[in-house]
Design brief:
By secondary structure, the chain is α/β, with parallel strands linked by helices. The chain has 5 helices and 5 strands. α3 links the parallel β3 and β4.
Length: about 130
């Protein structure tokens, strides 16, 4: 069994998912991707990632609907979630944080900024004493 940390990226932009998968794999992560909310929720339940990167604006289910489902499940409720989105309105950012998003990164983004949030989120999620 691999001890690589597992990241699930859910975004309807397949080009962005490919970039994230390639870059995060190069950083030593196992990376799962989904192009919509229902597929992302299924992967999260089946594979229980260490962190989820979630887009806000997607067809079928938006990021808020996906987040609500993640937080409602005992399996996925405590997984850190970073919202990676082009939405930069303060009210939307505040709403995302109020609904349980751990960190918020605005597209376009610098990869090192996203990596710093990933490292912080994963460190915060580690049980004490590990």
């Amino acid at each position: 069994m691999s001890n690589k940390k597992k990241i699930l990226a859910i975004d309807d932009e397949s080009d962005l998912l490919l970039i994230l998968k390639t870059a995060l794999f190069a950083e030593g992560f196992e990376v799962l991707t989904a192009t919509n909310g229902p597929d992302g929720l299924a992967l999260a339940g089946d594979h229980v990632p260490d962190l989820i990167i979630l887009d806000m604006m997607m067809p079928e289910m938006d990021g808020f609907e996906v987040l609500k489902e993640l937080r409602a499940s005992d399996t996925t409720a405590r997984i850190p979630v970073i919202m990676l989105t082009g939405v930069s309105e303060r009210a939307k950012i505040r709403s995302a944080l109020d609904q349980g998003i751990d960190y918020y990164v605005i597209k376009p983004f610098e990869f090192h900024d996203l990596m710093s949030k990933i490292k912080i989120a994963m460190a915060d999620a580690e049980p004490p004493g590990l």
